[in-house]
Design brief:
The structure holds 2 protein chains of 2 kinds. Chain A is α/β, with parallel strands linked by helices. Chain A contains 15 helices and 12 strands. Chain A folds into 3 domains: 142 residues, D-Maltodextrin-Binding Protein, domain 2, CATH 3.40.190.10; 123 residues, 3-Layer(aba) Sandwich (D-Maltodextrin-Binding Protein, domain 2), CATH 3.40.190.10; 42 residues, no CATH class. The longest helix of chain A has 27 residues. Chain B is globular, with a radius of gyration of 20 Å. Chain B starts with 6 loop residues before the first helix and ends with a helix. Chain B has one domain: MetI-like fold (Orthogonal Bundle), CATH 1.10.3720. Helix content of chain B is 75%, strand content 0%. By secondary structure, chain B is mainly alpha-helical. The chains are: A alpha/beta, B mainly alpha.
Chain lengths: 339, 218
């Protein structure tokens, strides 16, 4: 290759780089007003935000910058004034946050479910547990004698906070839990999906949000893990929106943050949340104060499905039936892939 | 492996190149003169300074990220600039990581050249400034290598990029952080595909620079 040719290529590459960086800048500059929201990985990883935010963005001609971290880190970002609004699921920590004057207008907007997930053979017998507390007790008792394992998030996430709450309700405080033997209680400090992968590998139990569990089943990564306990009120996972204190941090986009809160807790916003279906499940149930459903998508569909299940008809999509299914995870996975 | 080259992938790739490129240029602009100064000038404490520089090779990216986060957080000393969660913050964090590499490699390269060329240059009776320039010209290959290694560290960086960038879609999402995101969601195939893109991009840059070097254009 001649030097002139090489020179030409060099110039071309440099030009391309310059143009691309310019393009990156232009794309950033042309965006309208911005709302910076810190939220938890579960709302991002479940696909909910990608589904609901465009509606808000087009209505208010703005762009929402999502920073998805653990609830603990999200609250810390709010405390330091690095974001405008929070969408988190760590009620006790949220109350402390608001009581400390770091945020205002804490409003519950939706919930989803935590589930106790365990290996096929359910060595701790959590399927027969009377409640999630009972299930945890069984895992603990079997764990200490070497019959079961539990993988904990141990990472300051909302899920971990919930797990600690359940332990504490049966008499194991945070210090005791942290001192559980490594032989059966693993504390990796990783994300939900990764913890589920570990459970699959180790035949262990964990507490998971249902969305992450379904998503992992959907990609067939955890064929031997099943939901062994679900649906009791202690497993409800409440999400709230909190406005970061704009008196403390004057630079905050308080107007847009308020707009977002108003929109997501309005009937219109709540209906959008309700209409989000993935992996064959409605993943989030809207419950903002005063919400009255104006669509039939979530509630009615659910009712119809349950009726179909009861009547044994085959009208409902196969995957939807799995809500109450007790079959193996492999069957569920197939059903969902088929759907 | 189903990896469609979408608009998003291209944008993320370009941002990776942009952030790494800027950090490399900044880190070289600071590190190379600094390294030349330390390498060529005789002064007290030179040995200690060299040791510190070499030790900083192992500076953990996640700490650089945390430091920049604290500095530029609204509650931090430089919070009023409002650059947290922007590519600028990522560039600064990665620049911090590049400076020790470029400085250290420059020290080594000029010291190497110095020994052999110094005598010749001096015997020709050149001025100090001329001799410095001559040494730098002789050390050129090492200096380019310093920048390349710096770029390699930046393009592969994930901890600092995630912490100060925030992995915001369309703004601060780069190849490494999007690979982390997809892995977290269990999309291993897609993450692996993006990993290939990262490898190809990084290797293409190095290949191109190497080509220029061999043809003595660089």
């Amino acid at each position: 290759m001649k030097q002139s040719q090489l020179m030409l290529i060099a110039v071309a590459v440099v030009a391309l780089l310059l143009i691309s960086s310019a393009a990156v800048f232009v794309l950033m500059k042309e965006e309208p007003e911005k709302l910076r929201m810190a939220t938890t990985t579960s709302t991002q990883d479940s696909g909910l935000l990608d589904y609901i935010l465009p509606t808000f963005e087009s209505k208010y001609n703005c762009k929402v910058d999502v920073i998805a971290v653990g609830s603990g880190q999200a609250l810390e970002m709010g405390k330091r004034g690095d974001v405008d609004v929070l969408m988190v699921h760590s009620p006790a920590a949220e109350q402390t946050f608001v009581a400390g004057g770091y945020g205002t207008n804490r409003t519950q907007i939706m919930y989803n479910w935590f589930v106790i997930v365990g290996p096929d053979n359910d060595p701790a017998g959590t399927r027969n547990a009377t409640s999630s507390k009972d299930a945890f007790q069984r895992i603990h008792d079997n764990g200490t004698v070497g019959n079961a394992k539990f993988v904990s998030r141990s990472d300051g996430s909302g899920t971990y906070t919930k797990e600690l709450g359940i332990w504490s309700s049966i008499g194991y405080n945070n210090t005791t839990v942290a001192a559980f033997s490594n032989d059966w209680y693993k504390q990796p400090g990783r994300g939900m999906g990764e913890v589920l992968d570990m459970c699959e590998d180790m035949n262990a139990y964990t507490l998971s949000d249902d969305a992450t569990y379904y998503s992992r089943v959907d990609v067939a990564l955890i064929p031997h893990l099943n939901i062994t306990k679900q649906g009791d009120s202690a497993l409800k996972n409440q999400y709230s929106v909190i406005l970061v204190n704009s008196t403390m941090w004057p630079h905050i986009n308080k107007t847009l943050a308020k707009d977002f809160l108003n929109w997501i807790s309005s009937n219109a916003g709540q209906d959008v949340v309700k209409s989000y279906v993935k992996y064959g499940h409605q993943l989030f149930t809207p419950n903002a104060p005063g919400y009255v459903s104006t669509t039939a998508i979530g509630g009615l569909a659910d009712t119809m499905l349950l009726e179909n299940v009861a009547a044994g008809t085959s009208e409902a999509p196969e995957a939807m039936l799995m809500v109450k299914d007790t079959g193996t995870n492999a069957q569920r996975g197939r059903a969902m892939h088929g759907a | 492996m189903a990896l469609e080259i979408s608009y998003d992938v291209i944008q993320v790739t370009l941002l990776s190149l942009y952030v790494s490129g800027c950090a490399t240029i900044l880190g070289s602009a600071i590190g190379i003169p600094l390294g030349a100064l330390i390498g060529l000038k005789e002064f007290g404490g030179k040995g200690l300074l060299k040791t510190i520089t070499y030790t900083m090779y192992g500076f953990p990216p996640v700490v650089a990220g945390l430091a920049i986060y604290y500095l530029f957080s609204r509650a931090g000393p430089l919070g009023s600039f409002g650059i947290l969660f922007t590519p600028t913050a990522m560039i600064l964090a990665e620049t911090l990581l590049v400076i020790p590499l470029t400085t250290g490699i420059t020290i080594a390269s000029v010291a190497e050249v110095d020994r052999s060329v110094k005598e010749t240059v001096r015997s020709l009776g050149t001025t100090p400034r001329q001799s410095v320039l001559t040494v730098m010209r002789e050390a050129w290959v090492g200096l380019v290598m310093a920048a390349m290694i710096g770029f390699g560290r930046c393009i592969a960086e994930v901890g600092a990029a995630y912490m100060v960038g925030g992995n915001i879609k369309g703004e601060t999402r780069v190849l490494t952080t999007v690979i982390m995101l997809e892995t977290r969601q269990g999309h291993f195939d897609y993450a692996l595909g993006l990993g290939l893109v990262l490898i190809v991009v990084a290797m293409a840059v190095f290949f191109f620079l190497r080509l220029l070097q061999e043809k003595e254009l660089l």
